[in-house]
């Protein structure tokens, strides 16, 4: 049984179980044409319907794709699936299309804005989209990033009441809000916006910075800034009140850095429990072909696990307010300079390093690699972006990275498909394209439809196209 003392797990055996936590990734990214403008081509026709697709979706703009993995315990398997999905998506692009590697969009022309406003192919979301368009405008809505989900292992939660489970999850959330500024420093990658991104450039925004997206000028709203994290009850009350008074359209408009997720409704959290957390702070990493690296994911798994055991301060409300202000300050620091909070950052990361000593080598190495950025700000993504942009321009850098990533993904067999024979490779890729669930069961791969599942090795093509064969096996795809 988990032992909790003032929200703190202290049983060493249960602490070890945190290594079995699962992470998943959702990457938002724009399709662009090779001149650096948002693509006006339709969502790739090789991919299955967005009405049900578990892996490929789109967001506010038709060019704004969402690449969604399953949750995994192994960061190697997670990264392999993400790389496979990115490769499949890249292969489905038009010949003149690329993936924009930055979180803030390229310069958007008046014609682009008109096209985005008038073209949207997801009728079920049209009303909500119209609301967002009127309230925030297009530029705010087309910023992108990586969302990382986190779920505690079943073995850790076994025998726990809903209240105890919620207490542990929300303890992580509270510690995350206290430490968010650390991630903004380490992974911020939006140092500069396109000239017309802001309708009126904020006078306090002296670009370049560490992360526009994670600053008060980024992907946020007033309501999200004012939600209280002092208790789960306060958090839920503030969101419910904002919806009831019309400040928020629904819980989906809550743009906080972390969301509490429930498969059903948010109101069911208190009675049925939190299912997982969704962290929304990662800017796209233009130095990774998949937008977030395996090293980052390993670091983040250790980071979040540490938050589960790190005690909370006595004066939590004051600490949360102080941390919010610190994040705002760090986000707007010059990226190539040391942070004003370097000493605190190094001390915090040393504690994380100590916590990681019982983890496998690849996780310890990830912590060591990322922690070097504390004393070497030139290693942070924003500083690297600005150095590269100084040699050419931000747009030229982004286009060069986009071209490089496309070449890499087109030249390689998708990682999940590499160990398979030719027929199995075709079937796996077709399954992802069509929208079947792909599940790893020990050493086997299972393809799952709405009503049945088939082992990949049991399917024989015998000259039949892979898509045709899967449509025969799973008629709901037709």
Automatic annotation (TrEMBL):
Domain of life: Bacteria
Enzyme Commission number(s): 6.3.2.2
Catalytic activity: L-cysteine + L-glutamate + ATP = gamma-L-glutamyl-L-cysteine + ADP + phosphate + H(+)
MF (Gene Ontology): ATP binding; glutamate-cysteine ligase activity; metal ion binding
Organism of this sequence: Loigolactobacillus coryniformis subsp. coryniformis KCTC 3167 = DSM 20001
Assigned protein family: Belongs to the glutamate--cysteine ligase type 1 family.
GO cellular component, one term: cytosol
Coiled coil, from the record: none
KW ATP-binding (keyword) present: yes
Key words of the record: ATP-binding, Glutathione biosynthesis, Ligase, Nucleotide-binding
Record has Nucleotide-binding as a keyword: yes
Ranges for domain Glutamate--cysteine ligase: 10-324
GO BP terms, alphabetized: glutathione biosynthetic process
Protein name in UniProt: Glutamate--cysteine ligase
This protein's pathway: Sulfur metabolism; glutathione biosynthesis; glutathione from L-cysteine and L-glutamate: step 1/2
Signal sequence interval, chain numbering: none
Lineage: Bacteria, Bacillati, Bacillota, Bacilli, Lactobacillales
Pfam entry (one): Glu_cys_ligase
Spans traversing the lipid bilayer: none
């Amino acid at each position: 049984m988990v032992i909790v003392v003032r929200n703190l797990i202290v049983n060493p055996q249960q602490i070890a179980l945190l290594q079995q936590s699962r992470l998943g990734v959702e990457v938002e990214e724009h399709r662009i044409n090779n001149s650096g403008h948002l693509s006006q081509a339709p969502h790739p026709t090789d991919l299955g319907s967005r009405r049900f697709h578990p892996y490929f979706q789109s967001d506010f703009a038709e060019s704004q794709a969402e690449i969604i993995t399953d949750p995994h315990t192994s960061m190697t398997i997670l990264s392999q699936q993400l790389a496979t999905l990115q490769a499949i998506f890249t292969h489905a692009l038009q010949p003149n299309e690329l993936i924009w590697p930055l979180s803030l969009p390229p310069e958007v022309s008046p014609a682009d804005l008109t096209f985005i406003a008038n073209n949207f192919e997801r009728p079920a979301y049209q009303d909500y989209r119209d609301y967002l368009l009127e309230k925030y405008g297009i530029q705010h809505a087309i910023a992108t990033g990586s969302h990382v989900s986190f779920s505690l292992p079943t073995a850790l939660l076994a025998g726990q009441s809903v209240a105890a489970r919620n207490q542990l999850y929300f303890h992580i959330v509270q510690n995350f809000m206290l430490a968010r500024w650390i991630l903004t420093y380490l992974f911020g990658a939006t140092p500069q916006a396109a000239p017309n991104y802001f309708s009126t450039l904020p006078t306090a925004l002296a670009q370049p910075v560490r992360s526009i997206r994670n600053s008060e000028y980024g992907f946020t709203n007033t309501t999200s800034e004012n939600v209280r994290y002092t208790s789960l009850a306060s958090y839920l009350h503030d969101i419910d009140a904002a919806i009831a008074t019309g400040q928020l359209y629904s819980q989906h408009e809550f743009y906080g850095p972390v969301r509490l997720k429930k498969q059903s409704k948010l109101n069911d959290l208190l009675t049925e429990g939190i299912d997982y957390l969704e962290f929304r702070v990662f800017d796209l990493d233009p130095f990774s072909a998949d937008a977030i690296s395996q090293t980052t994911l390993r670091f983040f798994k250790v980071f979040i696990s540490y938050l589960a055991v790190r005690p909370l301060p006595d004066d939590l409300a004051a600490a949360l307010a102080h941390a919010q202000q610190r994040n705002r300050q760090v986000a707007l620091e010059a990226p190539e300079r040391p942070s004003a909070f370097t000493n605190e950052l190094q001390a915090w990361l040393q504690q994380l390093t100590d916590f990681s000593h019982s983890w496998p080598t690849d996780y310890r190495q990830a912590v060591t690699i990322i922690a070097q950025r504390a004393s070497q700000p030139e290693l942070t993504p924003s500083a690297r972006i600005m150095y590269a942009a100084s040699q050419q321009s931000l747009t030229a850098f982004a286009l060069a990275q986009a071209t490089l990533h496309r070449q890499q993904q087109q030249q390689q067999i998708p990682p999940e498909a590499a160990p398979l024979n030719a027929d199995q490779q075709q079937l796996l890729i077709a399954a992802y394209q069509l929208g079947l669930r792909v599940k790893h069961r020990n050493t086997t791969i299972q393809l799952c439809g709405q009503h049945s599942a088939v082992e990949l090795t049991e399917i024989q093509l015998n000259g039949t196209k892979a898509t045709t064969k899967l449509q025969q096996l799973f008629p709901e795809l037709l």
